[in-house]
């Protein structure tokens, strides 16, 4: 009987302790002027533009910077690359200043905050090719083709090494001894067929 009474008292204490009062957590405005509720006066603009429209917008912004002859941009999701065409006779420090001006101009635009600006003529031409292929409906293949062209241009070519060790034919290790002659005959026939 004592256990039942104790259990009822504990349940009563828990239930009364967990009840919420109907009071506000912050003091009323009349009591304390420290807290004031404000409305968001500038709602965030939603991104309703396509990647192509954003790329055109960024290229237009970059093209308006003085000493930029032409600009092109490629946008893929949150990433943007803007290629600018400047006079080939400008020295490197002047080109750096123009790139900085374009970067600053794009930084204040909501679409160009993270854009990368490139002033290399070859990379700018590759960006134009990527845009053309994207416009033709081949975005992935266009990017792959142009990236391979960029890498191929900068990677050095080495002549093949004449002293390379001959690789062992792993298939011959698996085939029983009595069938190795048959494999050699088949390989010779295939080589003869290719030469014809």
């Amino acid at each position: 009987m004592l256990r039942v009474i104790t259990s009822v008292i504990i349940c009563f204490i828990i239930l009364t302790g967990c009840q919420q009062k109907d009071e506000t957590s912050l003091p009323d405005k009349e009591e304390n002027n420290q807290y004031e509720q404000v409305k968001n006066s500038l709602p965030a603009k939603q991104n309703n533009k396509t990647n192509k429209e954003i790329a055109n917008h960024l290229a237009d912004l970059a093209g308006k910077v003085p000493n930029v002859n032409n600009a092109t941009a490629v946008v893929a999701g949150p990433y943007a690359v803007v290629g600018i065409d400047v006079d080939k006779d400008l020295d490197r420090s002047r080109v750096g200043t123009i790139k900085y001006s374009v970067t600053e101009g794009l930084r204040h635009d909501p679409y160009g905050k993270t854009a990368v600006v490139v002033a290399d003529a070859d990379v700018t031409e590759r960006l134009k090719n990527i845009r053309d292929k994207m416009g033709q409906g081949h975005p992935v293949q266009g990017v792959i083709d142009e990236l391979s062209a960029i890498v191929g241009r900068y990677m050095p070519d080495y002549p093949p090494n004449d002293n390379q060790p001959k690789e062992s034919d792993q298939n011959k290790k698996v085939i029983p001894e009595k069938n190795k002659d048959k494999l050699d005959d088949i390989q010779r026939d295939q080589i003869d067929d290719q030469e014809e």
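The chain is about 50% helix and 10% strand. The domain at 51-154 is CATH 3.30.70.1350 (Alpha-Beta Plaits).
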